[in-house]
Amino acid sequence: MLTASANPLNANVLMLNKHYAAIRIIPARRAFSLLYRNLAEVVSMEDDQYLSYDFNSWREVSEFRSRYQRDGHDWIRCVRFEIAVPWIVRLMFYDRLPQQRVKFNRRNIYARDHSHCQYCGKRFPLPELSLDHIVPRSLGGKATWDNVVCCCVACNVRKGGRTPRQAGMKLITTPVKPKRSPVIQVQLTGEKYASWKQFLNAAYWNVELKE
Questions:
Q1: Mean pLDDT by 10 residues, the chain (211 residues)
Q2: Can you spell out the DSSP letters for the chain?
Q3: Class of domain 106-167 as given by CATH
Q4: Domain boundaries, the chain
């Protein structure tokens, strides 16, 4: 049904359950599949209100926006019409929430620590950062949220295979496991994601963004 380049079909769309609780982020391709089968509806913020559209009514709205509000949208070109990629869709028959879980990975650790070295406190570009085991593996340290921190190369070399106490160094913050994905605060910036804010701020679950 839809014919377009890969980029707009891979655009991020926030998916809600039927009670307007955020579930996850999906590609536009998946969102359009749900819309076309009447399994979801578009939720659109207009004049500080959230309005709902099924596939056909969203197609009509898209026709208007293509003429007068084209900026700010990704567009899918079809054989007979053009349609805007929605920013939010709501499932019509799904009320469950995903299990709360934050992946223990390099990206989330960097986001939790805001790309600051946890020893010298300076912020570095990602290529200049590494991960440090507070208690080194050679001393029995584990790869856990409370034992791994963001660290610059210089501090990592200085600390070596010692504990901070042994190296005469001190952590600037105590590392803990985030309650939800810290990547939300890192990546969801800019005007495009303004309509997501209400749903994300109220959420107690974890949204994991695709790579």
A1: 60 88 87 94 84 93 80 80 90 71 83 94 91 94 94 95 96 88 53 67 43 30
A2: -----HHHHT-EEEEE-TTS-EEEEEEHHHHHHHHHTTSEEEEEEETTEEEEE-HHHHHHHHHHHHHH--TT--EEE-SS-EEEPPSEEEESS----PPP----SHHHHHHHTTTB-TTT--B--GGGEEEEESS-GGGT--SSTTTEEEEEHHHHHHHTTS-HHHHT---SS-----SS-THHHHH--SGGGGGGHHHHHT--S------
A3: mainly alpha
A4: 6-99+183-201, 106-167
